[in-house]
Structures are given as structure tokens and as C-alpha cells.
Design goal:
By secondary structure, the chain is α/β, with parallel strands linked by helices. The protein has two domains: about 250 residues, P-loop containing nucleotide triphosphate hydrolases (Rossmann fold, 3-Layer(aba) Sandwich), CATH 3.40.50; about 50 residues, no CATH class. The chain is built from twelve helices and 17 strands. Helix 6 packs across helix 7. The protein has a six-stranded mixed beta sheet with strand order 7-8-9-4-10-11, with helices on both faces. Strands 1, 2, 3, 5 and 6 form a five-stranded antiparallel beta sheet that branches. Strands 15-14-16-17 form a four-stranded mixed beta sheet, covered by helices on one side. The structure holds adenosine-5'-triphosphate. Adenosine-5'-triphosphate (ATP) binds next to strand 2 and helix 2. It is found in: Cell membrane.
Length: about 325
């Protein structure tokens, strides 16, 4: 049984959305760049991927593996080398730019500084595929803008100039613009770059919630591995060689794909805690007896100081931990 089947069986599980509705898919897609003289540099492919309504998909992978290239290709900014992208049943390359703008909205990291524009005007730009370049907003457009503002919790910024906002506030406004565009698929390239930790957590939670509430498919690239593991419905894991594994976060951890994609000297992925750790080559073994928070942090301190944690029941060096909080007691047996 898969973990998703297990979760779906449980009473009170959130799997009420029709997760089998495919918003977009790629068919034998090869991504990369033309290198002149009829040659091309293939970054990855063939890729057969699916994006489902109501799901948040996080695209992860080391620097330079091809995340932005994939997002640009799926959003129609860049031609595929081979294969095709289907959105709501139709081939993307058959659509005119104005039609694409009604299917896919894109939020890039670098476009968040929109100078002297006020926040409401920027969010209204999301309606241009419907209102035309004159930008005359109908009552219906205004309603959708209001909904986007509410959903992204950006009411407080209306009336402010874009260049007066913090990076986190800017990202929320850019997301509101994408919501106002009201497309079935929203793509975001590294939306958490430049944000502090609380803003990163807030934005990722908001994206997860928006996918569920609006039934849109949301695809984003990120280097926030821990956060992605917590909020993503699906993870697309790219490796430097162009391999892409798609699956539930837990499945990719359990089958070792996660560890493999980020395998680097001195960095180890701890499947037990879902975090990346610096690997210290501990020479002297030590056994730690005890459970809970104190044991967890004691092991970290020992590893950082050159010990390796031994599992053998009888080990010459043993630390046992008892009690908790201010009453924690450490006893060393040699
Ligand atoms: N215009 C281009 N022409 C040729 N190669 C390119 C071009 N743009 C990017 N590349 C190369 O394609 C590969 C993938 O780049 P891409 O920007 O998609 O990676 P990424 O995973 O998004 O990286 P990062 O995490 O650092 O943002 C890199 O080797 C990059 O040098």
C-alpha cells in the first residue's frame, strides 16, 4: 500500500478534492537549448509529468540541474526540444499568447520590483488577458481582483507603492496578480528566494492553502527542501544528470531518491528527521541511551565534536540521559 492510499483511508483525511483531474501534462518532453549548427544541449527528457487540480507541486534539485529551464518550457516562454505540453486537453504550442495567458500565470523571482506602480494597479495587471491593453476593468474583473486580494491577504498593502513593500510583501502581491489572472495553472520560479524564514513558511503555507481552496494546480521551484517536504502534494526531484523523479514527498525519501539527488561530499540527508545535515567524520564511537529532545540534541553535540553514534548495546563509552527540561541528567559510563 502507498502512503497516499493509507492517508486517504483515514477518517477526517483532507483528500476530498478530485486529485485525479489533470490540469496539465508533458508528453515525451525534452528540455534544453539550441547550440547552433543543428545541435542542441539537452538538459532533461523525455519527461512525462502530470499536474493535478488542487495540488501543490514543488520542483527541487541542485543548482544548474534545469529547474528554471523546465518551468520556462512548461509556461511557454521557451520552446521544447521535443515533445509537447498539454494544458486542459489542448496543446500549448497551438495557442496564441493571449490564450496561453488565460491558461498559465507565471511569477518570476526577479520581477517583484515594479517601481512606482501602486499595489492595486499591479494586481489589476493580472486581468489584462481579459480586459485588453486599455485595461478597462468590468465589475466582474473587479470582483476577481477583490477575491485575489482577499485570498492572498494583501488588503493592507492596497494604496501603497510597490517599491515601498518588503520582499515578502512584494511576493504576496505578485501572487495576488497571478490569482487575478485566474488561470488553472500557476507557475512560480523560486518564490521564496530573498525571504526570511517566517515569510518563507508563510508563503509556502499560503500556496498550499490556495491550491486546495481554488482547485488550481500550482507548480513552484524552490531550494527550501525541508519546507517542500512539509507542504508539497507532489515533489518533482531533478538530479544534475537530467533525471527527474516525481512522487509523494514521503515516497521519495523512503525510496532513497531524495538522498541521491543531493548527494554531495560532507552533506547527508537524514531520512529520520527529513533534514540535511553536515557530515562530521566521527572517529570515536559512543552509545547514547535515552529518548526525547535531550537525547536528540546530545547526539548532535557529540557528532559535532568528533564522535560517531554507535548502536551496539555494549559499547565502551556510553552516555545515558534521564529526566527532562531543567532536570535532565547525563551520566557517562566508561
Ligand atoms: N540560454 C542558455 N543557453 C544555454 N544553456 C543555458 C541557458 N540558460 C541556462 N543554461 C544552462 O542550462 C542548465 C540549467 O539551467 P537552469 O537555470 O535551468 O538551472 P536551475 O536548476 O534553475 O539552477 P538554479 O537552481 O541555480 O537556479 C545550466 O547548466 C545552465 O548553464
Amino acid at each position: 500500500m502507498l502512503i497516499c492510499d493509507l492517508v486517504a483511508q483515514l477518517p477526517g483525511s483532507q483528500t476530498v478534492l478530485p486529485i485525479n483531474v489533470i490540469t496539465a501534462l508533458t508528453s515525451a518532453l525534452a528540455i534544453g537549448y539550441k547550440a547552433g549548427k543543428g545541435k542542441s544541449k539537452v538538459i532533461a527528457g523525455p519527461l512525462n509529468l502530470e499536474l493535478h487540480a488542487g495540488q501543490l507541486v514543488c520542483l527541487l534539485g541542485p543548482n544548474g540541474c534545469g529547474k528554471s529551464t523546465l518551468l520556462r518550457t512548461i509556461s511557454g516562454l521557451q520552446q521544447p526540444l521535443k515533445g509537447e505540453i498539454i494544458v486542459e486537453g489542448g496543446a500549448l504550442n497551438k495557442l496564441k499568447p493571449a490564450q496561453v495567458a488565460k491558461k498559465i500565470s507565471l511569477v518570476l523571482t526577479d520581477n517583484v520590483r515594479a517601481g512606482n506602480l501602486d499595489v492595486y494597479s499591479l494586481i489589476s495587471l493580472g486581468r489584462y488577458p481579459y480586459s485588453g491593453w486599455l485595461g478597462i476593468l468590468t465589475e466582474h474583473d473587479k470582483q476577481i481582483i477583490e477575491q485575489a486580494i482577499k485570498a492572498t491577504d494583501t488588503e493592507a498593502f492596497i494604496g501603497r507603492k510597490m517599491d515601498s513593500l518588503s520582499d515578502g510583501e512584494c511576493q504576496k502581491v505578485m501572487l495576488a496578480r497571478a490569482m487575478a489572472q485566474d488561470t488553472p495553472l500557476i507557475i512560480l520560479d523560486e518564490p521564496t528566494a530573498h525571504l526570511d524564514l517566517p515569510s518563507r513558511i508563510q508563503l509556502m503555507r499560503l500556496l498550499h492553502q490556495l491550491a486546495k481552496e481554488t482547485n488550481k494546480a500550482i507548480l513552484l521551484s524552490t531550494h527550501e527542501l525541508d519546507l517542500a517536504l512539509q507542504v508539497a502534494d507532489q515533489i518533482w526531484l531533478m538530479s544534475s544528470g537530467g533525471q527527474l523523479d516525481a512522487g509523494l514527498p514521503e515516497e521519495l525519501v523512503l525510496n532513497g531518491a531524495f538522498q541521491h539527488a543531493f548527494e554531495k561530499d560532507g552533506i547527508v540527508f537524514d531520512a529520520a528527521s527529513g533534514t540535511f545535515n553536515i557530515h562530521y567524520a566521527g572517529k570515536r564511537g559512543i552509545k547514547v541511551t535515552g529518548e526525547g529532545v535531550a537525547a536528540f540534541w546530545t547526539k548532535k553535540a557529540l557528532v559535532r565534536n568528533g564522535f560517531s553514534i554507535a548502536s551496539a548495546a555494549t559499547h565502551p563509552l556510553n552516555v545515558s540521559i534521564s529526566g527532562e527540561g531543567a532536570d535532565t541528567l547525563w551520566t557517562v559510563q566508561r
